[in-house]
What we know:
Layout: E1 21-24, E2 27-31, H1 32-36, H2 47-55, E3 61-63, E4 73-75, H3 81-91, H4 94-99, H5 109-117, H6 128-157, H7 166-180, H8 188-201, H9 221-232, H10 240-254, H11 262-269, H12 279-283, H13 285-292, E5 308-314, E6 319-323, E7 326-330, E8 333-339, E9 345-351, H14 356-370, E10 376-379, H15 388-397, E11 400-403, H16 413-424, H17 440-443, H18 447-452, H19 460-476, H20 486-492, H21 503-510, E12 512-513, E13 518-519, E14 525-529, E15 532-537, H22 547-553, E16 557-563, E17 566-576, E18 579-588, H23 603-631, H24 651-658, H25 675-683
Parallel strand pairs: 5-10, 10-11
Antiparallel strand pairs: 1-2, 2-4, 3-4, 5-8, 6-7, 8-9, 12-16, 13-16, 14-15, 15-18, 16-17, 17-18
Helix pairs in contact: 5-6, 6-7, 9-10
Amino acid sequence: MNLQWLSGAIPARGASKSKTMEWFGNTIAVTKHDLTRSDDGEGIMSADCYKKLVARGQLTMLRPGKGLGSYALIEYASMPSRFRDRFEAKYGDPETMMKQDKITLAVDPEAQRFFHDHLLPNGEHLPEAKQIEYTLNARVLNALREMFNTQRAMRRACNNNTPVIWTNIFAAAEQLRAAYGHTLPKSEARLRDKMRQYAKEGYTCLVSGKFCNSNTLKITKAAGRQIIALRRSRVPVYTTQQLFDEFNRIAAQRGWKPLESKASLIQYLERPEVKPQWYDAVYGELAAKQLFSRRNKTVMPTMRDSLWYGDGTKLNLYYKAVENGRWVVRTASVYEVIDAYSETLLGYAVSGTENFDAQFRAFRMAVETAGHKPYEIVTDNQGGQRSKIAQRFFANICRISRPTAPYNAPSKSIESVFGRFQRQVLHQDWRFTGGNISSKESWKINREFLEANKEQLYTYEEMLAAYAAARGQWNSMPHYDTGVAHEEMYRTSVNPETDPVTELDMIDLFWLTTERPSLFSADGITIQYRNRKYTYEVLDAAGRPDMEWRRENTGRSFFVRFDPDRMDRALLYEETPMGLRFETVAYPYLTVHRNIQEQQPGDMELLRWNDAQIKEQRVRRQIENHALELEHGVAPEQHGLRTPAIKGISEREFERLADTVMVVPTTPASEPIAVGEYTKAVSNTDYDPTSIFNRM
């Protein structure tokens, strides 16, 4: 049957002369069968090749081949050029062939306007999809009615009084269904009834009765408020069925029309103007805020280091640990710092829990990676973030530091980035679950598998290495918007308003200073960090304890500045009225093994050297202190008494060491003198000066 007599401008969706292609809307489509068939010559592609191209998104699927009588349609233009060449060589040029076979329907602006303006009994407009559907059905009915009238006129002109053959009209309707996809009745009798109804009622008959018979449409304002109140009830909490029954019970008492179905109840509660009136009571005010409150639309930064996000989460990359002699499954937390512009992962720290220490280490790594301070930092609202030390830290590291808006998860873009990082990279590892191990919902897919294979899980160190590799993979992947690798975007961007970081800046930013001064004693100076004690001492150029510095500073208190990631040195500061003044650098206290068996090369030399230094210092102190006594007339010998000898040092050794000590008298214009000169001066007194050298 020829339908070319139909007029209009819109191309049809099917009914092509070619069996290998058809219209899908305004798009030329080919079938899977004709792409893969080989019974009429060499196939365009194999079935396996077809599946791979679809999976990779290299073929655009217009319609999946699901359902009885349906078949898959592929957009011809989406096919790779090599396959289009094969297709045209076998079947011809689709563009040329299909343009010769278009079927058109006459437009109906009046129908389009009617369905656009039509109001349902509840005062609402038809859904847009229904407006399009009903307008198309009207155009098809117009064409069928015109065909009916043409046939009847031709029969009358020929004095033929036989009825119009409906079989031909029904066949035309089915051809138009294949071409355009209208939804008119599929049986000849029902189509005939619909055409008669259309002739009497016009466009109205095409509107489904489902839009007109909803019981919710007849709910009064008072009845509606009662339904909302029952939905908000917390004591008791009603199920849908219980709410339905309770409302109808109340409706019978108050003379309201009862609801006929739960569907009508649900439809009413889901109305856009009704839903906000009960949603908060059921799901919480914050959930209601997220659903109904307008969200700001923001534009991401256009340069690196303009905005860094920091946030912590469960890593969920599971590893094994030994507990009570058996393997157990464990995970950790990770704190990540991300550049908002490039989505580059700049720094991170894996820890047992999210705390300021993890934040500190993550931001330190980020600054070391960047070589610059960020302009702005946005972090979460965890407790560690609000501590005084954290506030001072973030005030020094950037110009602006702020937390995310409380109870406003969408304000943190880092969660979106980290989510994609998990889905695109971490999920490739079977040890990654994406959920808390204690959560049945999030871990139920992997729980049995992990437990069955826990001996094959990473060790803690292996887990750290795997996570570091995953971060590297993400940074080398293309940005979703630009197609340029994250790290490449970051590296090639320049932010003229951010400050470069020097070595002194790193000390100022990331070295910690003790809150109180510590005493430098004979045992060095000790600080405590992370529940561990660290002891330092000052060394000379040869790497041995600086005895001269010790002689002048033992018993003095210093503030200690140290690198929390490298406790191999510390800076000592003395408090002055003008603030902290740098004194010197201290190093880990030198130690030796007590037992000879485990002593290392140099241990014995250090012991001997230290013993000699101690003896020399003891002799020096006694000589210098006795000189002071003599100078001021308070020496025991000046009063008929004796100064005790130094224990553990023989007289000969004392004299040997004394000869190496320089004494600085306090008399004006005097020069340092050797101990021999000193003892000669003392001998001129009227008492025995050698008593001070008595070894007892």
